[in-house]
Amino acid sequence: MARPDPQLLMTWTVVARMGSINAAAESLGLTQPAVSNQLRRLQEWLGEPLYRRHGRGVTPTALGKRLLRIASQIEGALADAETLRTDVQGLMQGSLLLVASQTNAEILLLRAMAIFQKRYPMITVRLQSGNSEEARRRIDVADLAFVEDAVVPESVPGITGKTLIETDIHILLNADHPLAQRPADEPVAIGELDGVSVVWREPGSGTRERVEVAFRQVGLEPEIRYEFSAGAAVREAVRCGLGVGFVSALSAMPADLCTRPVTPRIVQALSVIYQGPLSRPGEAFLMVLEDMIRAGAYTGRRREDP
Description:
Radius of gyration: 32 Å
Oligomer: single chain
Order of helices and strands: HHHEEHEHEHEEEEHEHEEEEH
CATH class of the largest domain: Alpha Beta
CATH topology of the largest domain: D-Maltodextrin-Binding Protein, domain 2
């Protein structure tokens, strides 16, 4: 044989440490002839004796002691591999990469990550946020991708998708804006926004895509004057009076901003897509997230929400 069978080396470690072939056979659950045969094969491969017999058992030769040190290193590496396997199966170690639209990140994922890290502190979780289009593009490297209004074609093999939450998109207003003076539950008609300055998210944003569709359905062509690549920038622009914006109805609002429903309703789905099969950390995270959603414990949820 070109290389020694690792099992032969493991047998040698037991024999050398116990100093007895019979005792080693009993420890290994083998017959004495089976252990002797393994030692013979190992000695033939090495080309030199591994041990000397004496009345009380066997004593390793100098070469046998050197091989014992080498075999012990292999034994340690195998033990480390078994520990790693146990840790992974028990979700004690590992890594998880999440990519997400900013709406998903802010409303769902940060709270879920906090819960997950308490349960599985040895798993490293990375979250990369952008927009829905960017999240879809990174599905080949991410464990889980969170997007808005995801439609996964059945023709795409190996891709699984599910909707986590369906909610509304509301208009975002500076507290001093005329539309903000209406009762909180009085909707703003999309047609009323003709000529109103709108602060938009960047192309690829799921929120923007849904709002553009809503504008065109009532015969308005969206005018793109202000465009920002982050939800925080949109909020600040609205705060500064550049125009109105659009956000998820579940987004938490600072005191100087407010939201109003719109009509016709703009429905938004927050969804997850992934390539199967999921890793064990991925399965565990999705379970934590879905439990959190069922409990209504996600970030931004208002008390009056059903």
